[in-house]
């Protein structure tokens, strides 16, 4: 991965939870000045590998080598019970006032206990702790969780500053962070559980990965076509052999006269059959690729809405002592609108008012004519039906297109008989997304759609939104997502 001497080497790392192998033969190295991103679908073992690297877990097989005297700092996704009981000032040590101000944290937060903090505040405190640490190797597990734009910018500057004398290995769903910082990408394959190394930045990895999948399918399709040709040739030659063997009825004299000829032709046909069989046997088998290629997919609309989609005048919602608004917002058909703001600004509340799940306390919300909304909430509702039953309910007998859609969103034919309640949060979000696409709405309202979708499903969604002719309203913190969906207007809360 690099020409510099490695400060960390992972060699043939394997790890299992009982009979479930999550890591198999993971090998890579890391050098000073290098930022490596560890990627792969949820549950593939990324956090487990970080714990092995930091010494929190021991591998079943393989070894970790760290340069003599070098220090590793590990920042996990969640703080331990022991850390949660500490005061902030104990946890992070001395911190400069300007750093609190940059991250928009109040100065009195230093005297609060970690357990009192929100998810966003905990992530920011971890970021401040990272600034204070002096290490050679930084192991960061989802450092961007719940961070706002200011904190994300602060994190990127911190990585850039520290990488001059240190190395980083990062797990993150923030693709813009990976685009801006990662020198190399290590993907843990969800089927083989092995590591595959790609050069960064993240966008280059996505292109190379797509090409790899496309090439794998081309090899497989060429193999299937060749196999079919050889099988057809073999069947034909066998049929000719049978016909030649039987032949038309003849007199004894004719039989004697043709005996030698028949014997010779039989041998020729036999050799031809054997030759065809040998060619078929010699054909090198190509396994069917595990992953479907990501295809372009358009979200159709059944009927167009009126030109005016939403008209909000003086809208206000009051929660105890806290109020959201007054909001004035005018959304036209075909517009893509990104609603941005810090955590707690009321973005989700606004979306819930648009879809009619919450009523405003003041002001008015006027909806346009013919409006048909497809809504993807942050938290999807549970459903005790089977996926296949919902597919039939939506599509009737014509299921093929919807099954392709599910496949492209990571729900395979093997999972289609699952109970919806048994799906993981990510699988459930992908299924709800597939349902609303199948509905063919003229207005998409998406609340943090990148929260539970992996990078491959997101690539599919971004392509679909770019070509969507209806109205799209999105709440997201994902900068890379916004850069990929095409032209949009923004509304700051």
Structure commentary:
It contains 15 helices and 17 strands. The longest helix has 45 residues, at 202-246. The strands form four sheets. The chain has a six-stranded mixed sheet, with helices on both faces. Strands 14-15-16-12-17 form a five-stranded parallel sheet, with helices on both faces. Strands 2-1-4 form a three-stranded antiparallel sheet, covered by helices on one side. It is α/β, with parallel strands linked by helices. The model has no long low-confidence stretch (mean pLDDT 85).
Tally of separate helices: 15
Query: Approximately how much helix is present in the residues?
Result: 25-40%
Fraction in beta strands: 15-25%
What's the Cα radius of gyration? 30 Å
Runs in which pLDDT lies below 50 for 5 or more consecutive residues are: none
Class by alpha and beta content:
alpha/beta
* Mean pLDDT across all amino acids: 85
- Overall body shape: flat
Q: Keywords for this structure?
A:
alpha/beta, five-stranded parallel beta sheet, six-stranded mixed beta sheet, 493 residues, single chain
List the helices and strands and how they pair.
Elements: E1 6-17, E2 20-31, E3 35-39, H1 46-53, E4 61-66, E5 72-75, H2 81-84, H3 88-92, H4 97-102, H5 119-132, E6 137-141, H6 149-162, E7 167-171, H7 175-181, E8 184-188, E9 195-199, H8 202-246, H9 252-282, E10 308-319, E11 322-332, E12 336-340, H10 347-354, E13 362-367, E14 373-376, H11 387-395, H12 400-408, H13 425-438, E15 443-447, H14 455-466, E16 471-475, H15 479-484, E17 489-492
Parallel strand pairs: 3-7, 3-8, 5-6, 6-7, 12-16, 12-17, 14-15, 15-16
Antiparallel strand pairs: 1-2, 1-4, 8-9, 10-11, 10-13
């Amino acid at each position: 991965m690099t020409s510099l001497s490695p400060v960390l080497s992972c060699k043939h790392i394997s790890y299992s939870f009982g009979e479930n192998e999550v890591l198999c033969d993971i090998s890579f190295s890391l050098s000073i000045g290098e930022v490596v991103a560890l990627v792969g679908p949820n549950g593939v073992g990324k956090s487990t590998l970080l714990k092995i690297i930091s010494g929190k877990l021991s591998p079943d097989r393989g070894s970790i080598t760290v340069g003599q005297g070098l220090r590793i700092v590990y920042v996990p996704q969640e703080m331990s019970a022991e850390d949660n009981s500490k005061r902030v000032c104990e946890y992070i040590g001395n911190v400069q006032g300007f750093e609190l101000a940059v991250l928009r944290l109040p100065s009195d937060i230093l005297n609060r206990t970690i357990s009192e903090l929100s998810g966003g505040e905990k992530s920011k405190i971890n970021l401040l702790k990272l600034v204070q640490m002096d290490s050679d190797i930084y192991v960061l597990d989802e450092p961007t969780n719940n961070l706002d734009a200011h904190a994300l910018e602060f994190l990127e500057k911190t990585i850039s500053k520290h990488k001059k004398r240190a190395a980083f290995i990062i797990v993150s769903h923030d693709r813009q962070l990976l685009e801006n910082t990662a020198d190399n990408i290590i993907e843990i394959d969800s089927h083989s559980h092995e590591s595959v190394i790609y050069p960064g930045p993240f966008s280059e990895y996505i292109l190379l990965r797509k090409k790899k999948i496309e090439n794998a399918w081309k090899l497989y399709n060429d193999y299937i076509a060749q196999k079919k040709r050889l099988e057809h040739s073999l069947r034909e030659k066998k049929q000719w052999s049978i016909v030649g063997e039987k032949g038309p009825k003849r007199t004894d004299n004719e039989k004697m006269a043709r005996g030698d000829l028949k014997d010779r032709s039989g041998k020729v046909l036999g050799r031809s059959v054997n030759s065809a069989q040998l060619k078929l046997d010699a054909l090198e088998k190509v396994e069917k690729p595990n992953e479907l290629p990501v295809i372009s997919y358009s979200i159709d609309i059944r009927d167009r809405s009126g030109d005016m989609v939403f008209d909000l005048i003086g809208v206000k919602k009051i929660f105890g002592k806290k109020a959201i608004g007054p909001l004035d917002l005018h959304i036209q058909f075909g517009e893509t609108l990104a609603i941005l703001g810090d955590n707690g600004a009321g973005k989700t509340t606004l979306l819930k008012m648009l879809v009619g799940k919450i009523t405003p306390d003041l002001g008015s919300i006027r909806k346009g004519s013919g409006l048909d909304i497809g809504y993807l909430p942050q938290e999807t509702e549970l459903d005790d039906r089977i996926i296949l039953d919902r597919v039939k309910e939506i599509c009737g007998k014509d299921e093929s297109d919807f099954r392709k859609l599910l496949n492209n969103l990571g729900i395979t034919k093997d999972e289609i008989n699952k109970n919806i309640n048994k799906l993981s949060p990510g699988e459930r979000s992908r299924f709800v997304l597939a349902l609303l696409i199948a509905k063919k709405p003229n207005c998409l309202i998406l609340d943090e759609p990148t929260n539970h979708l992996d990078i491959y499903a997101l690539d599919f969604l971004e392509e679909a939104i770019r070509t969507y002719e209806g109205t799209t309203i999105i709440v997201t913190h994902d900068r890379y997502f916004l850069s990929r969906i095409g032209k949009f207007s923004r509304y700051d809360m």
